[in-house]
Amino acid sequence: MKAASMIRRFPSVFYRWTSGMLLGGLIGVCLPLVAQSSPAEAPQNSLPNAPGRTTPTPAKPAPPLPAPPATRPPAAVTQQPAAQAAPPSPANGQEPEAAAPGDEEGTYTLKQNVNEVNLTFTVTDRRGHFINNLQQQDFALLDDQRAPAQVYSFTQQTNQPLRVGLLVDASTSIRARFHFEQQAATEFLLSILRPRTDRAFIMGFDVTSYVTQGFTNNPDLLETGLNKLRPGGGTALYDAVYKACRDQMLHGVPANAEVRKALILVSDGDDNQSRAYLDDAIKMCQRAETTIFTISTNTSPSRERGDDVLKKMAQATGGSAFYPQRLEDIANEFHKVEEELRSQYSLAYKPADFRADGSFRTIYLTALRGGYNVHARTGYYAPK
Predict the structure, then answer these.
(1) Which of 149, 169, 312, 357 has the smallest C-beta neighbourhood within 10 Å, fewest atoms?
(2) All structural domains of the chain with their residue ranges
């Protein structure tokens, strides 16, 4: 969506959205959005079994609130591992999150304010080139249909630590392409991960999903995890995405750790075995605040249903979908994911009328300059 350039003037208020939705007022450093009710969270140890999905009714919009001065109160503290509760026993070689070898002096940053939202996003022009030189005043944001109460910080090309999950389709349908996937994925991990700050895990799936290497910053362990994947069986794609976001991203990373979480899904997008629905997988990744990047293994000239599935997953979580035309191009698509991860903006803000009730709060973010597209997640779940 585009917003008219005339709305930059402070402190004017406007309402506009071409699809008939409210765009909302922009107040100085504030930034547009929509609302959705929260579904009940699935039991931790099971997948949803054909739950009902209904379209939520948008909440009644309220006038935007002016932003207080953009001076940030203390919002982060550095915690030593010894101060944290003992982590559960690691599985599949996963290293403890708070004190893994290679972390900077065994520390990580924690968010202090529960009502602080951290949003990472990218901006591209009409040709798909990343734009990295925009300022805070070039954007407009609504959180749950309201302008944020306060913007704490805005940074370009964020250097927050990465938590990356590599989710590889190992079903029979991609057997002929499997070697290319493994090789390209190995090169990607060696290139993207910074040993002192970043971590990744490896998960494969066919009729079931399985972790071959838990979170680690050890490249040898990650390569071994990729080599353990073997193709065969049907495809339970939605189940795999659901489990990856729930078990690894939501429960495997401290809830208040300031990290960027990204899931790289390599698949043709076809699903014939899952108990979960596509919407269930997307909602779980939104709850885990995880961005999905998809790389299609469908190299046929025509788009198939699976390609649309991959696109929907990526768009709903603020990521991108890539469609290589040849198997040999898969490595190039991994490079595009790397470029996007290194071209992200980071925005921290306090929502207006925030309630820690576990509800889903929608996000609408747009660039005020014409011709630019913003790639951001469509919402998040408030903590309880």
Answers:
(1) 357
(2) 1-35+111-157+343-384, 162-340
